[in-house]
Structures are given as structure tokens and as C-alpha cells.
Model the fold of this input.
Amino acid sequence: MNNRRFGDRLATGLFWLAGAVILGILLFYLIFIFWKGINVLTPHFLLSPPKEVAAGGGVGPELFNTFYILFLSLLFSLPVGLGAGIYLAEYARSNRLTYIVRLSTESLATVPSIVLGLFGMIIFVNAIGLGFTILGGAATLALLNLPVLVRVTEETLRAVPFSYREASLALGATQWQTIRRVILPACFPGLITGVTLVAGRALGESAILIFTAGLSVSRHAFDFNLFVPGETLAVHLWYVNAEALAPDKDAIAAGTSALLVLVVLIFNLAIGLPSRLLQRRLTGNK
Amino acid sequence: MTSTKISVQSLNLYYKDFQALKNVNLEVEENQVTALIGPSGCGKSTFLRTLNRMNDLIEGVRVDGVILLDGRDIYRPDVDVVNLRKKVGMVFQRPNPFPMSVYDNVAYGPRIHGEKNKRKLDEIVEKSLRAAVLWDEVQDRLYKSALGLSGGQQQRVCIARLLAVEPEVLLMDEPTSALDPLATLRIEELIQVLRNDYTIVIVTHNMQQAARVSGVTAFFLNGDLIEYGNTDVIFTRPADQRTEDYITGRFG
Done:
């Protein structure tokens, strides 16, 4: 009896500790990064272009490119990723072809991003001859997102009870009506989590973009041109640390890190809050 | 005075190599409650699901034989399964309301069949919930999730959802097996009311239930339809020894 109690307490304590460790690591990161970088984040820093040799450069274009490339890569990968995930979960029969599609997706998900980056460079930069462009970067980034999106979509759809499908089909719904009106709404929170995961990864991705979108930015602010190079925040962070000549490069790096973390946090909130409201509207309150 | 709604002739069903239904012949009468009884795994649920082709969803199922609904074979290749299921609806063993509001659950069927008029939908929802004897309990929480209701209420939401598409035949697959006795009683009372307007086929494990709600009972054993007939005859003077053994609790 006492032994069992002790074991129970020990387990509770260990799980509590594991939770505390995770929280501790996260807090340490956040405090460390913000403490070093937050006072760099002035309007001037956020809006003005970077400087190569002189001090006082900003990250305005990088901030814009980060979102622009993320948006484009989601534009490319979401339809295909969701589509393939829905196909695998709802339409595919359990045969060899399905198995191969699933295996390919899983293998794609394990390809290191540097390999994808070099692949993107061979295809978009060299073979097609675009040079370093926002388009090439976004397309290659989409390749990184794609397998994760397929997996998340398929698994989220599979987690929806079969009884919902039965109920809908038994009412005379077509398969597409069932997917659109019952399955996808029920999956909504899971899909949003998937998109957030993918977006977080894309926001922080550097290896792919160094070789496809390049290390320079357009001279025009808010340049939507797809065929100009487009350095992002994460790439800029790498560049500043590795090669920059500006005397204030440490401060710029610290500021860029803090901004990057902030961007991810804001992005997650910006997607999470409205989706929670929409979810509540779709499902009705309990 | 009774007319045949569904006529099943020489029905065989195979699941891969396993024959789950063997040469079943059965007439389902219109505006009658037909109960399907038998031990677990005897094929009664499988049989029920052939009547609106829900077995089509399961890979490896093969059906031969004829099932006539109003004289027309529902397994002919040119039959529109979507229309068939609109006519022959189903209530499942576990209540399975969608994760939406009560209103959206009941309005689901009419909406997928093209009804957009808000006032018309309001009418259908109220009428269906009243028919399922649930209106008084949920009218002030129509826009809250159906998942917040009790099991018995959820099952009545499912019945209301079904009634909203105005089917002709209701298939019920052990509709009360996940419910407590009081909720079971309410569903049984509801079936008594619904029998006036619908043809009902109900699978049940509970023999008292079959005796209480049905006019005709069919006894299945190992994929064979052993016998069927008026419920009071089946329960008092069955023709087959196996039926008597099952009903008196000697196996099953």
C-alpha cells in the first residue's frame, strides 16, 4: 500500500518536473533573447533597409520578405498538402499505391532542409535560370512544408470518428458534402495547429532560403515583385552573424533574433484567436 | 391491409471469404415495426445495413440477391445511393450527433439536399424535434452543441436529424443499447408513435424490447434467417426449436 502511494507520488513529481523543465527552458530562451534584443527594436530598425558596411542598418525589407515568402509558400503548399491529405484519409484504398504515396511523403519529411535548398538552387536558380528570387525561395519552402501538411491533414482527418461519416452518408449526403460539412469543420483545430507548425518552421527556415531567395533585398520598400531576391529575417540573422561588416552587427543580430521570436508569437496568436472564435461558431457552445 | 415495403430475395453477403448472410428471404411490411433478433455476430446488423447499402462503405463486402424497395431493386448499378439513403435512413447503436449545434444537426439533412430558406429550415427543425419528442427539452438551447446533451437526448437528436430528411423507412441498429433504462423507455415510446408514419426495422439485443415495440420479429442465427412472423407468435409458439432455445435464454 505504502509502496503504491510512494510510486504514485514519485510519478506525479516526475511529470510535474518535466513540465517545469520545458517551461523553464522556454522562459530562459525568451528572457535571454528579449533581454539582449528588445531595446534594438526601434521603429527605425523595423522600417529601414539594412546597411552593408556602416552602422545603423535596419531589417524593414527582411520583415516584409519573411511574411511575403511565408504567404507564398503556404499558397503553393496548402492546396496540394490539404488535397493529398484528404485523398489519403478519405479516398485512398489500402493498396500498394497508397502505401507508396505515404512512404514517399514520410521520406520527403525527413529530407534535411539544406538538401532541399541545394535542390531548389539547381532547379530554380540554375536550370530555370531565375537566379535568386522570392518565387524560387517560396516554391522550395513549399517543398519543405508539403509533407508535414499532408501528414497532419491525413492524421487529423483520420482522428474524426467513423460514426460521423456514417451518419452523414446515411442521411443521403455525398462523400464531398460529408467531407466539407462534417469532417473538415470537426478537423478545424487540428488543421490550424498543423498550419501553425508549418508556418513556424517556415518563418525560421534559413538553409533553404540562403540558396534560393538569396542574401540581398530589393531597394524598394514592400516590393511584391516575385523575381527579385528576398532575404528573410532568419537568413539575415545568419548573414549578420557570419559575414556582415557593419560595426553594430551584434546588436542587429540580437534585434533580429528578438524580432523573429516576436513574429512567430504574433503569427500564432493572429491565427489562433480568430480560429478559436470560428470554431466556437461552427460547433456551438456546450 | 398490409403491403410490402421491402422485399428481400435470396440475399447473400460475403465479407472477403466469409459468408455473413446466407440466402435470406424476408418481406418488410409498410408502417410496421420489424425487429431483428439473434445472438451477437449472427448477421442481423449486417442485414440491416444492406437495406440502405451502408455496407458499400466497407472494403471487401460483396452482395448478391435482390432487395426490392417499392418493387425496385436497390442493388441495380443505375441506382443512386444518395437518393436511396434519403429514403431509407438509419439510426446507429451509439448516438452520433455531429459536433455542431442541435439546430445545425437537425438542419444538416435538409441543407445538403438543397434547402436554403431560413424560415423553412426553422420549421423543419422544430417539426422534426417535436416528432422526436425532444423539442421541449432543447428549444432554449438550439444553438448550443448537441454534444452537451445526455445520451438519450443525443439519440433523439439523431432521430430528429433523420426525420428532417423525410425518409420512408427508418433503420435502427440497436438504438438503445448505449442508453440507460429511462432513456430507452423514451425511445421505445417514440418508436410507437413513429410506426404510424414510417416503416421501421430495428435490430435489438433486448428481447423484451422486440416484444414491446415490434409487430413482426425475425430471428437470425449464424447468417441464416431462421424464421420470421408476427411477434406474439414468434415469442409464444415459434416454429423452430432454435428460435425457442434463443428466446428462452438457452443460448445467445
